[in-house]
Structure formats: structure tokens, C-alpha cells
Design a protein that fits this description.
By secondary structure, the chain is of the alpha/beta class. Helix content is 31%, strand content 25%. The protein has twelve helices and 17 strands. The strands form four sheets. Strands 9, 10, 11, 12, 13, 14, 15, 16 and 17 form a nine-stranded mixed beta sheet that branches. A three-stranded mixed beta sheet has the order 1-5-6. Strands 2-4-3 form a three-stranded antiparallel beta sheet. Helix 1 crosses helix 6 (82-90) and helix 7 runs parallel beside helix 8 (162-169).
Length: 359
């Protein structure tokens, strides 16, 4: 698991991490395609064959970070500069075993940045979300990138760091927070890869119980939203209640004390509903009114209710056992026929809720 313990700023500066920027990389939006929701879409054999023609001269690093191949240690040491290899090994981005070197993280191109991300979105092996980039992260990153003039930003549940890095690229001073130390380490490394380490600080913390004594021009979060009862998978973070909104509601309630007077929060999640829209809209209107803030809700195109990813399934991909029974009973009881991804923009000025759709 990636770690930056004992690695100094000078170590990063002398390693030449920018060499990773020259590699052919997975383009997230191209790769998602038909495999959206798969654990590792970039391992699809057809996709890898399609990008094989773009291989640069950096064959060893490309083999490690693009194709996920194990490479002979002697070949790695002959091609990769010593300081860079040493840092990647110390940070546990690369690992050695039986004379072979492998990359525990892949290189993904996301919104003009290069990001080291986990090969799979989450895991039963680590018991938490991994630092992974999905199309939802890309959508929110582009909204962040469009917010010019932001001087300070807070990224809650930072993952790979893509949202905070988008704000830092615009000149903001960024604080990135995650309960998973693997994510804060990945964010730190990605900040150095993209030359933004002087504008971003990553720290470990629980976004559900923050204690910060400062306000921010921009607060952004793409929190866990798996619609499963909290604790049902036993993860450090992931399950967000049967409606998938427990993290969302808690973060929304923190917004007024985190924003500057003219600041904005962007919160992303997903909710059950029907053909008319998400069921939670009336409750959201009431909560915004109670908090004294205004909101604009942008809905993605809906899908049928999806069984939560990563939960145990049978051969027909249906949830199994008591967990499956619990989710099916809940979806049936509330009459859900649609599932909506959304982004909520919140401001301290104004009042009411405007509902729109992504074009």
C-alpha cells in the first residue's frame, strides 16, 4: 500500500517523478465506455491492445504502469534512474518479489493530469475504497476546474487527489482530507507528479467529524455512496446507508461553517427515485432552508436501480444472502425504479433549490 512515511520534499524533488508524465497513459473517459462500473476497466484486453501502438521508448515504465506487467529487476534497474526507482520502491508504488518488479498502481490521464491510481476501485483485501478514478470523479473535476479565482479549497474524501489538484492547478491553496492513509499518500505523490505539491496538503481525518477552524472558497467532495447499510461490508469507508446518502447529508450540514461568505460547495452522490426524479428532493429543500443556504441540483441521466458494487453476488450477479434480501426489500418498499447520480452546488447567499440536468 502506497506510503510517504519518511519521504521528504527533497526526496520527491530529486527523484524526477515528472518522467512519468511522458508515458502513454490510460485515458479514463475512453476506457470507461462499456466497462463503466467494472473493477479494473483498463485491464480489458482489447483496450490494452488498442493503446499498445502508442508505446513510447520508456518500455519498462510503460510495461509496469500501463500494462501491469511484472518486469525483471535487472531490466528495471538498467532503464529507470536510481533516484526515481528508489523513491517508487520506498513509497510502495512499486514492489519487488523473486527478481521481478511490479506496479501496485497504474497511471491514468485525468482532466489533463497524470494520476497514480489503484488498479481496482475498492477492495475486499484492504477493506476500504482505494485511491481510484471513476467517471464521476472526472465530472466533478471539470466542474472544479471551471471555478476560477478560488483562493482556498477543501477536498473531503480526496482519493487520488484529483479534485484538490484541479483546484490547485487554478492557483488555490488546497487541504485534502481522507480517512484512508492510502488515499492521502496517493494524493501527496500525485501532487508531486503534477508539480503542485507547493499548493496542496493532504491529511488523514474523518470527514464525518471534522474540526477545522478556517473557511474555504470552495469545498468539494465525492464521498462514498454505496447504498448499503453502514458496516455491512466491514469497510473503513464505503457503505452510506441503504439510501446511499448518509455521508452526503452529514457533509451538507457542515457546509455553512466551512464556506467563506461568497464560497461554494460541490457535493456529488447518487439517490433512488422514479421517472419524475430523486425521492430526496423535498427533504433536500427543507434541509437547505433550515441551514440558510441555497442549492442547485444537477442530475445525471438515470439508470435502473443498480445493486451496489463489491457486495457478494451469485453467478447471475444478484446479491446473495441476508445482504441481498435487505437491499431488494428496501428498493421494493420505497418503489424505486430509477437511480440518479447528481452534483449539488451549495452557496451561503440566496435561498431555495433549483433542479436541472447535465447536458
Amino acid at each position: 500500500m502506497i506510503s510517504v512515511d519518511g519521504i521528504s520534499g527533497d526526496d520527491f524533488a530529486g527523484a524526477g517523478l515528472q518522467r512519468l508524465l511522458t508515458l502513454p497513459q490510460h485515458d479514463l473517459l475512453t476506457l470507461a465506455g462499456d466497462w463503466l462500473g467494472e473493477l479494473a476497466p483498463w485491464r480489458n484486453s482489447e483496450t490494452l491492445a488498442a493503446i499498445s501502438t502508442t508505446m513510447a521508448a520508456e518500455s519498462v515504465l510503460s510495461s509496469l504502469f500501463v500494462f501491469g506487467e511484472r518486469v525483471a529487476e535487472s531490466d528495471v534497474r538498467s532503464e529507470v534512474p536510481g533516484p526515481l526507482l528508489d523513491l517508487l520502491l520506498r513509497a510502495r508504488v512499486l514492489s519487488e518479489d523473486s527478481g521481478k518488479v511490479s506496479a501496485d498502481y497504474c497511471l491514468v490521464r485525468g482532466d489533463g493530469m497524470s494520476l497514480l491510481a489503484a488498479w481496482r476501485a475498492a477492495g475486499r483485501d484492504t477493506g476500504s475504497y482505494a485511491p481510484w478514478v471513476g467517471t464521476d470523479s472526472m465530472t466533478l473535476s471539470r466542474l472544479v476546474a471551471a471555478r476560477r479565482g478560488v483562493r482556498s479549497a477543501l477536498d473531503l474524501g480526496c482519493g487520488t487527489g484529483i479534485l484538490g489538484l484541479s483546484a490547485a492547478r487554478n492557483g488555490a491553496d488546497v487541504l485534502s482530507v481522507d480517512v484512508n492513509p492510502e488515499c492521502t499518500a496517493a494524493t501527496t505523490v500525485n501532487a508531486h507528479v503534477n508539480g503542485l505539491a507547493d499548493r496542496l496538503t493532504a491529511t488523514e481525518g474523518d470527514i464525518m467529524s471534522l474540526s477545522l477552524d478556517r473557511r474555504f472558497d470552495l469545498v468539494v467532495s465525492n464521498p462514498p455512496c454505496l447504498p448499503l447499510r453502514r458496516g455491512s461490508l466491514g469497510w473503513l469507508a464505503g457503505e452510506a446507508g441503504l439510501d446511499g446518502l448518509e455521508f452526503f447529508w452529514e457533509l451538507l450540514r457542515q457546509v455553512p461553517r466551512l464556506l467563506t461568505q461568497d464560497g461554494e460547495a460541490l457535493l456529488q452522490a447518487a439517490a433512488y427515485g422514479d421517472e419524475r426524479g430523486p425521492f430526496f428532493v423535498p427533504e433536500l429543500e427543507a434541509e437547505l432552508r433550515r441551514l440558510g443556504v441555497s442549492g442547485r441540483l444537477l442530475l445525471r441521466p438515470s439508470t435502473p436501480p443498480r445493486w451496489p458494487a463489491f457486495a457478494p453476488r451469485d453467478e447471475e450477479q444478484q446479491l446473495t444472502g441476508p445482504l441481498g434480501d435487505e437491499v431488494r426489500e428496501y428498493v421494493s418498499r420505497i418503489g424505486a425504479t430509477h437511480y440518479y447520480g447528481f452534483v449539488l452546488s451549495v452557496r451561503r447567499d440566496g435561498e431555495g433549490l433549483e433542479v436541472g440536468r447535465f447536458q
